[in-house]
Amino acid sequence: MGRIMRFAGISLIFLSGILGVRTAEAGPSRGLRVADGPAMEETTMIQKIRKTDQEWKGILTAEQYRVLRQAGTERPFAGKYNDHYESGVYVCGACGTPLFASVTKYDHGSGWPSFTAPIAEGRLEYREDRSHGMVRTEVRCAACGSHLGHVFDDGPAPARKHFCINSIALGFASANREEGMKKETTETALFAAGCFWGVEDKFGRIKGVISTRVGYTGGHTKDPTYQKVCSDTTGHAEAVEVIFDPKKVSYGELLDAFFRFHDPTQINRQGPDTGTQYRSAVFTLNEAQKEAALEAIAKLDASARYDCPVVTQVLPASEFTQAEDYHQKYYEKLSQRK
Fold first, then answer.
1. What residues have CB less than 8 Å from 143, skipping those under 6 apart?
2. Residue 125 to residue 32: CA distance in whole angstroms
3. CB hemisphere CA count around 313 (13 angstroms)
4. Which of 189, 259, 271, 304 has the fewest CB atoms lying closer than 10 Å?
């Protein structure tokens, strides 16, 4: 309750601009299954991106908005990627999520960019489209819900899939740029240590941390929001995602900071904030992180630093949903208003 009281006095400043666009997910229709088509990599967990309609209008051109957010269609043979065959990756024109590899692009003759398969099936959503007197399968970006085009069963063997995508719904990253990005290796860590406002602020001050964002993870319901998570019924924890340069700061050093930033012996609370959403947890993205977290806890317990044992959970990372914009960099925004 203490967290909610702190929040109540300022929340009205932000509420008018945070009603996110929510898109219902649907499985592939008309016989399209997740197993169909030679996906280029294993399906990965997609981070959902939600913006208001006004925010999309501020980001996209009028024509992009018409196609991506209003399910419009550009004229055939008019798009810049119809006859484009450079090596690289095609990304969502709205949010930048990688969607199609250039090696899957081919000339279908339809007048729109055509692909045989996405990079991973989890990058796309499928919906039944009954517009214009036809029954088709619409394709959307799974991250932001933007309309991309349609998928048909008239593609080349063996999968026979034809992803017919609007050029204006895409962006492109050349292979040269991708190679450069690979050299700039970063790693991700995910921590829960009570109210995520202060935790994010503290992690953001560590040298080697490239970026942070707050959100919800570890729950059992879809589309968590601050209000839902505060009900203590969704199972989510308030968490901070930390992107860092391992050459400048190690995961072990971030773990040390994590334990300094809060009291890991408190169960389902931190200070005045109570509820499972305020629990202490490390959400690991690989086996090395899991081993490091367990080792750190064992050392803390053996050190007798605390009167009670450490109760921090070590759990495999699940879907991370970014929190509402007014929670991001909260203390930074607060200091700017003073």
1. 46, 47, 48, 49, 92, 95, 97, 123
2. 11
3. 22
4. 304
Distances (CA, A) of 153 to 54, 85, 125, 172: 36, 22, 17, 25
Strand partners for 152: 162
Cα–Cα distance measured from residue 275 to residue 338, given in angstroms and rounded to the nearest whole number: 30
CA distance 252 to 254: 5
43 band by pLDDT with thresholds 50, 70 and 90 = very low
Exposed/middle/buried for residue 1 (C-beta within 10 Å: 0-12, 13-18, 19+): exposed
Residue type (1 letter), 33:
R
Domain ranges of the chain: 18-178, 185-337
Q: Can you give the pTM of this predicted structure?
A: 0.50
From 95, 195, 230, 308, the catalytic residue: 195
Residue of higher predicted confidence among 257 and 39 = 257
Distance CA 83, CA 73 (A): 17
For domain 185-337, say whether CATH 3.30.470.10 is its number: no
Q: Are 127 and 140 in contact (CB under 8 A)?
A: yes
Annotated catalytic residue 308: no
Q: Give per-residue pLDDT as tens, 183-240.
A: 457 899 999 999 999 999 999 999 999 889 999 999 999 999 999 999 999 999 999 9
Q: What is the topology classification, in CATH, of domain 18-178?
A: 2.170.150
Determine which one of 141, 164, 230, 308 is catalytic. Answer: 164
Per-residue DSSP letter, 157: T
